[in-house]
Amino acid sequence: MNSKSINDSNLISRDLSWINFNYRVLDQVRSKSRGVLDKLKFLSIVASNFDEFFEIRVGSLYNYIDNNKTRIDYSGMREKPFREYLLDQSKTFFNDYNRCFSEEVISILKKQDIIIGEVNDLDEEGKKRIKKYFKKTIFPMLTPMVFDDLHSFPILMNKVIIFGVVTKNKASSNKKKISFIQVPINLPRFFEYKIQNKIFFIPIEKIISKYISKFFRSITIESVSLFRIIRNGDFTLEESEDIEINFLEELKQKLKDRKFSRVVRLEVSNSFDDYLLKSLKERFKLDEYNIMQLPVNSIIDFTSLRQIYEFEEFSDSFFEYPNPIQSFDMEGSSNKNIFEILSEKDIFLHHPYNSFDPIIRLLNEAAEDPNVLSIKITLYRTAKNSRVIDALLKAAENGKHVSVLFEVKARFDEENNLKNGYQLERAGCYVIYGIGSLKTHTKLLLIVRREGKKVKNYAHMGTGNYNETTSRLYTDLSLMTSDQNYTKDALEFFNVITGHSVPEDYENLITAPIYMRDKILDMIEKEISNSKSGIDSKICIKINSLQDKKVINKLYEASNSGVKICLIVRGICCLRPGRKNLSENIEVISVVGDYLEHSRIYYFHNSGDSIIYSGSADVMIRSFKRRIESLFKINEDFIKKQAITILNYNLRDNCNSYILKEDGNYVKKELMSGEKFDLFKEFYNLKKNNLEGSIIL
Fold first, then answer.
1. Mean pLDDT score of the chain, rounded to an integer?
2. Which domains does the chain have, with CATH numbers?
């Protein structure tokens, strides 16, 4: 199937849309306005995204192919031809971002005296240090593993640098043997060395290559090749009645199995031994579509570039994020505790422009406050040295009732979440490890506090994880409140997800997996009805991903009914805008820049009395059917203005925005007239009297 026939579909392939998204991230590397270290950061992000794409999306595709199951992509292609098309497009992307590094970034680095080079680029002192480093540190840590008639094929680890060495022994009729040397992940990726103003970063594989003969004494080395494998990381867990034992044991087994799962990509160095390649292809059941070869002057695994852009001597020249500004809702509240502030008004935060510290403060004050009786929280991903976990541990030590719904199925954070869960359990917290086959993705915190003879509840609802590290890098929204209209819904929702309760409805929450899609469809239908009645009708939705067919088809219906629709979709978008008689009234933009756009806002004009929701859910099948999600309604006029202003700033941006065309490709939004509007800068300059009360579609 060619690209024209793919574009004939009314839906865009989710996986091809993902590749398009990462081209937009790659644009950040190519941008002339970014410093070289910032370029390295985005190149590292591109590579990390690409690895995860193969582990999850390509891995999922292979789950169908290897088990002879049918899958039809949104493009209309069956699983096997789609595999070939997708891997061909992936290989093109792989080549593009590697050429960007080898042909553009390396030369820019050199101009700034940053050299990613060879051992022979160093002076004599540097060469001596590398020789000593290899002898004392590297050599003892490496373990060559031979594969021959007497030795079974070794287990090759996912996403590590591996040497494949083909050797001959004259004493055994010159028969070829293959040995593998895997580079431990706890060895630094680069050897750092400074000569005057120049800083050299020598890749560890260059050092090992120079001295690799030390591992093969009295043996003829035919070839030395470098490669890296990506394994299938996609798995599902079966529902079990005995969730306390079987579920956790199955999860642990799946995590072990992931280390030996199917190889879905083989990344090889520019000069690679044919005999070794043939052996690996046969062993892993791969063909040419799975093989991705590095160009000359590139290096393997760009995720390791972090060591360079975080090098301590570069701290002054690396992009520094501005300091967070105070939330409008916290002005004049410096002498009050957080519970006094929330008793007077709700607090709305827009991270990272507003600090995440008020949420940490809320947890810490709750942990120490003798009047706080209990804390309930959902956790999906936490920081490495989490202050959130520390506050919950302190609360338990102080005798609070602490309930934690810890989602251990958060992909690639499973082991960390299990570890933190066990730590909380030992401290006396009540820990629930997920709800059957559903992922708990909602972001919710409830605090119960005694105030005189009464008990009062406080809540936090958000779009992002309780992770203070990513809160500095992701745009997210937080609502902190003591309004009982919110807290009673939060309390009821906790009863649903931790117990056995089925509420009829919520006043200010829309939840999944039961109600969310239908509620969203109802609100779109209301705009359709208004438009048919001649009433001004608008929809503006800001999300990470748009994939659910039922919502997409309802948006197509709304477009044909005259509803003006603007979708701000950062990543995957399966809706095709601008198609005649289908989606002529729909515009889709994607914002990619300094921060990862992670906040979600759902705006419906509603005859001028706007309805606005925010929360953790995207418009995805998994959000509606396979996750516990929530969206919270924004009621207060001042907070509504803040939410509308966020949408408007996204719509006005002309520095970081891309427009999705009808053919599925994106074009950079051009500066037509007037001044540049960079939303990542403008939010720091936003004043209270600049808030906008109506959407600018």
1. 91
2. 3-314 (3.30.1840.10), 328-507 (3.30.870.10), 510-690 (3.30.870.10)
